[in-house]
Specification:
The complex is a heterohexamer, with 3 copies of chain A (about 425 residues) and 3 copies of chain B (about 110 residues).
Chain A lengths: L6 H17 L10 H33 L5 H28 L25 H22 L6 H23 L4 H4 L8 H19 L20 H20 L8 H33 L4 H16 L7 H24 L8 H19 L5 H29 L6 H6 L1 H6 L10
Chain B lengths: L1 E7 L4 H10 L5 E9 L6 E4 L2 E4 L3 E10 L1 H15 L8 E12 L11
Antiparallel strand pairs in B: 1-5, 1-6, 2-5, 3-4
Classes of the chains: A mainly alpha (about 425), B alpha+beta (about 110).
The structure holds adenosine-5'-diphosphate (ADP) (3 copies).
One adenosine-5'-diphosphate (ADP) sits at the interface of chains B and E.
């Protein structure tokens, strides 16, 4: 029973161990034994997986802070539920669809069970599952924020079941599962496209099918801002996402059992941090230049735009290039947020600019530093994954719309979703 | 007796409170309100979209007084809360028919 | 000076290293050297201890979000103080009572000092202390939430001194300290009973002796809900608890210096996550079925119920069984929350259903997957620990009641404890 | 290209490995190989660096919770920006100024780039950069809180550019960079002076030059308290700081590749925790004694005072001494907070008592447990670093005052900085 | 002059505001209140226990007007805030004896 | 008709509400206010500095009633909210000239 483990990455490990004997001659006869490497590799999955899990809390805080108070209970409910659902669905069907006997286009339908690992495998199979599982939740979190404040709770949760159990794993099998995209040379180290754009495309499709919040776009073509209710909470969420991203990108090295691997992880942490930092600074200077004041929510989005952008290739860039990639990610966010409003696409938290737009940029930017990447293969991957995700998401949203509706009725929206969906106010004593 | 309602700038509450204490007003009730008036709301930008904040935070003070102190109270509020800028607010005077102190049951001026 | 280190677990380590030579033959002549294993074991205690420490913040946020605004300062004060007190008391007397020269029923009364460890010990003695210390704080946090909104701050803190310095360590010596319960075959891997039920019993005793919040139960037999003031904060707290639990259960493997150990830790992370996820999903479906709407606070409690349930045996269950154990934990929480109200036991945050009831279930459920466990031994442990904790807690609460009172006067309760106990409002500008 | 790596610490590593062969004879012929040690050392920098990064979120929450609601957006903006700026400036110029070719008084002006590391170096150069980088952000966070609620956002950010790019690294080169202070025998393990007091001195200078918040000190000599708007958030921030401090102090061992190192890290975690715990308990007892009620904000400051105090020497003290050092740190905070008010120095969050005063105490207290330390050298370091930081900070603040002003106008201060600086309210629905 | 107090549904504030602007009302003061009336509170369930929310969020608008515009204001509020469902609210009219603009000291109708 | 404004202790809202329901009052409007009166604010200490909280949380109840029930309402509020301690609050009675139910357009007593 051979698992098509992330193709280009198992290669990376081999290259890594080769290169370590080249770069590090003095250690040639003092390398870690196989079991020590096994422990390091496994522990890297676990601890970096924990960091990615923290991102679920980060998304929850960011989104909870950016919605209005009357929808904050629903937003919290959605975020903790989607993390739970993602974890179950990825065991029930997702992981094996993505990684088990991938025939090029899809893996196998079966419940995941930890396999007996031997030290020669390099890491515990369970730890890999754990690390992959927290990634799925990320994709779902992205959708949650975009369609906030009007989506029906149960419909959203059903969408998450399909997204995390099927849509995400199937497209994931094409690249990380060793399928046709990886053979075509598509490179996406930690998932600018495979995780973030997938979430972004699903969010975009959802926003269009569900429609904007009532009152958001007035008949005379004006946009009515609906400011977030708790910006310190949104800032906390961004910090958690930022720091959780060290796990997202760092853990995607998929190994820590050699000096070369841990060197790589160091580089990844650094580039990840520099890209996010550049994103913040660009957004601050940008909003001062454009609007005369610093828009904190844009600074938070800018950090995330930088992070998404560096995710497709956080290892190879020099510090300067990482700053550049992150900065451009933030510029794209700054420009796309008002653009979406012009198109009357109502994305409550900026998920589409951050995860889809900066994700596309990041996937293309791989060619700037990784000589194995070709513009053609990158665009090919971006397009087929985009088409697939939009198409399947649209079907799911439409079916849901047909059978149970995808948005609450207008009065519920006015009163706040918390009343109809939860019967509980998020802050009963702070608001009227 | 009169029931005086004053809408003032929130930042002036403390001065007004001082001024009223100085003329021996021992009771008042304060609340936070939103005002709309000639002082137009500011236009702000949120995530690239411009919008106008129509309502501006104001503080509302309610004071029940007897006829004798009415003038003094109005003058005190006026001079303590005036900045000369649009948005300083208003004082409204209504007729108060009865006042009762819950604790003692006193009525009329002695209840204030 | 020989320390009775966790009896059944030191065994586990031996078994672990034996089994590694069986399961992993290819690594037989490439195992980590003793010092490498020492570093791994020690680091596991430290990093997993950090994760458990995060749970103290998680409890603080969960409880702070579930109390009314007028009591949120006191709740924050209690939580940061109890973590501090637990840390001091466990050094001053607790650790040695629990682990030093345990004669079957109790260890020795003395201040803990780090002993000179040698590599042969397998891990640094200080790291073990650190890991055990953060567990104590958990037990105290449980009580804090249950008796909220009416307990006198100083009385509560004195109770914490006794709980963390004496009650917890003494009963802990019976099992983890190698005492009579461990000899009787009682198995509780990471503390469903030893930590969570102990906290739960102490909470139950406290709730009964202190009495319900005034106005909670009306004379005509109705229950008056007092909704929490900040549900996004409560959600954050639950996320922190959930992820901190990876440390709670994962670190309880007590070793990471072999492939077998790190395989075990992987399994533990996975089962812990699946149980919590099942808890959330069960609570969501359950509250929709029972009440027509999703009660977010029940979903949060459901996650925790799942986590507590899997804690007694997070290693052996298959994924399916972990889902089952966690799901049942959540069902029990759903049923017990209204039951307690019927009994007029006023548990503000659901600590008793989550930690006591799901803890008992989890301890029994060990027999489902661990063939070394017997129902008899499990029940024996549950009962003697329960009786001991209720008895000693009751004495402490009664003595406190006698000498200084255990609850604030009614006017203070009406005005909020923050005014009388702290003279500080938690949110001076958000509430009247 | 030889880097003047932290002088006294590289020594510590050597001593460490020597001592390990003494303390741990049984392991003498089973020590980790060089590459394994390399991985451990590097990973220690990364994971402990992550913990220190969490402190940036901690500061943000603490400060956001202690300012009034009308200034909470600006406070969030400042905190996420300063972390971004610190990360960029430390790459652009800071790191090399601090560690590259230090001539005694200053390193070299150049952009940092990861150097090719070989296993013999002991750790990945990038991981060291990452760990040093997060420290810089801490120093800047300290200033942020002290000058809150009146400082002009842009001026503050420019100050951060200078502080993190120049002031901090230059003084850091004197000690950790191997410059004249390290040669004079000045010892500051994790930075009570080098990080915390530097932040504290810069904060003090800022508070004096910027002046108090309008209305804080009345003409008749009274102090008008301006209570924080969100104490649960401030408590969360303190927890994050506390637990992040395990990284701050633990990672400062600078190595984890031997049993001696990981023993040291264990000790550091324990002492760090005990000092903080003592700080909380002292503050609780202290405020009850002084004022009759527990001042939660003082308990939070007390924890931090304990942490700052133990930072200069978290390794050598016995548990009892750690408790003592932390407790005294907290006493100093309790006494200094009102003292500053008497001097009409308006420090919004208590940054000066916590970071400057407790930092000085901690630096002096090194002599209590480290026989290599002399009172003379400690005082020498405290004074020269203090003079330098005050002097350079004063110049920067004055120049900013001259050219663009350092505080917002009085009406903006009354209305709240969020309106003028961000045009966004932090909690638009909770406050009027 | 009259002092008009209207209790309306919060979701109708914007329409009412528009309607009043259309008849050139340049000032008003708004606050958030809790209403109790025939529109009974909803029954909710929290942690398994049922309870009734007695008070429902409402918005209170206060407008000082001169006699001449009184009718127009009432009509405007009425038609802009009516949904026909229970809970739409009330308009109360009190007599206003004096109004003073703090900034200028103007009194009477010209102060409004 | 009368417009009754009562300022009471927040903890008494529920009892007052019960008492009014018992005499068949079917409508009222409630808001949170800050009161200043003979009940002096408490002196508190924050970070070592003493200060007086001048304003104390109070609850304001507004009820429009017809003349016939005025007395009953005042008595009900008074007895339900009295504790005998300073700070119990006041009841103010103003003249109400008109009341309109938005939903139906009813006016006068039948609108209440
Ligand atoms: N006709 C009115 N009725 C009730 N409140 C009013 C009225 N006009 C103004 N106000 C209140 O007074 C505040 C100040 O009024 P505004 O017209 O802005 O400035 P000014 O009083 O200086 O002319 C408003 O924000 C509003 O709260
Ligand atoms: N007698 C009253 N005095 C003061 N406010 C009232 C009175 N009656 C109703 N209200 C206010 O008007 C609101 C709507 O009244 P309600 O009886 O629910 O509906 P409707 O006005 O459609 O008959 C109430 O929520 C309350 O705020
Ligand atoms: N003259 C007044 N005008 C308006 N409100 C008043 C007046 N006097 C008192 N109040 C309100 O009544 C509350 C209670 O008054 P206070 O003098 O403290 O106690 P008591 O009514 O028992 O004498 C105050 O907090 C304030 O809200």
């Amino acid at each position: 029973m051979i698992k098509n483990i992330k193709w280009q990455k198992s290669l990376a490990i081999i290259v890594g161990s080769l290169s370590s004997s080249i770069i590090l001659p003095s250690a040639a006869n003092a390398a870690p034994d196989a079991e020590t490497a096994y422990i390091f590799n496994t522990f890297s999955f676990l601890i970096h997986g924990f960091l990615v899990a923290l991102m679920a809390a980060g998304f929850c805080m960011l989104e909870g802070g950016l919605v209005r108070a009357k929808n904050a209970t629903v937003q919290s409910t959605k975020n903790i539920s989607l993390y739970a659902i993602a974890g179950l669905m990825y065991a029930i069907v997702g992981y094996n669809l993505m990684y088990m006997d991938v025939n090029g286009y899809i893996g196998s339908f079966s419940f995941w069970n930890p396999s007996e690992t031997v030290v020669d495998d390099g890491y515990s199979s369970g730890s890999d599952w754990f690390f992959q599982m927290v990634f799925v939740a990320t994709a779902a979190s992205i959708v949650s924020g975009a369609v906030a404040e009007r989506v029906k709770l149960t419909s959203f949760l059903i969408f998450v079941v399909i997204l995390t159990g099927f849509i995400y794993p199937i497209q994931g099998s094409w690249s990380w599962g060793g399928g046709y995209l990886s053979e075509a040379g598509f490179l996406d180290f930690a998932g600018s496209t495979i995780v973030h754009s997938v979430g972004g495309w699903a969010a975009l499709t959802g926003c269009i099918i569900i429609g904007a919040r009532s009152g958001k776009y007035t008949d005379d073509g004006k946009v009515k801002p609906m400011p977030g209710s708790n910006l310190p909470l949104a800032t906390l969420g961004t910090f958690l996402l930022w720091f959780g991203w060290f796990g997202f990108n760092g853990g995607s090295q998929l190994a820590m059992g050699s000096a070369a691997d841990v060197d790589a992880i160091s580089n990844i942490y650094i580039n990840t941090n520099l890209a996010a930092a550049a994103g913040v600074v660009v957004a601050i200077i940008g909003t001062i230049a454009l609007y005369g004041k610093v828009d904190l929510t844009m600074a938070l989005n800018g950090a995330l735009g930088g992070l998404v952008a560096i995710t497709a290739e956080p290892l190879a860039p020099s510090p300067i290039l990482a700053i550049f990639i992150g900065g451009v990610g933030s510029v794209l966010v700054l420009l796309t947020v008002p653009l979406l409003d012009k198109l009357k696409i109502d994305d409550v938290v900026g998920a589409i600019p951050v995860h889809l737009v900066a994700g596309i940029w990041g996937t293309i930017a791989v060619v700037l530093s990784n000589s194995d990447a070709t513009l053609g293969a990158q665009l090919y991957g971006i397009i087929v994954i985009g088409v697939f995700t939009v198409f399947t998401s649209a079907i799911v949203w439409y079916v849901l719309k047909l059978f149970m509706g995808v948005r609450v009725d207008e009065q519920s929206e006015l009163d706040g979703l918390d009343k109809t969906e939860n019967g509980l106010e998020a802050y009963p004593e702070f608001t009227n | 007796m009169k029931y005086i309602i004053a809408i003032i700038q929130p930042s002036k509450l403390e001065t007004v409170h001082e001024a009223l204490k100085n003329i021996d007003i021992t009771g008042m009730t304060v609340s936070e309100v939103q005002g709309y008036g000639r002082q137009m709301g500011k236009s702000e930008i949120y995530r690239g979209a411009e919008y106008t904040v129509n309502f501006i935070p104001k503080t509302k003070i309610e004071i029940a007084v007897d006829e004798a102190t009415e003038e003094a109270v109005i003058t005190a509020i006026k001079s303590a809360s005036e900045t000369g800028k649009i948005g300083d607010g208003k004082i409204f005077v209504l007729d108060l028919q009865e006042a009762i102190r819950i604790r003692t049951g006193e009525t009329g001026s002695s209840a204030l």
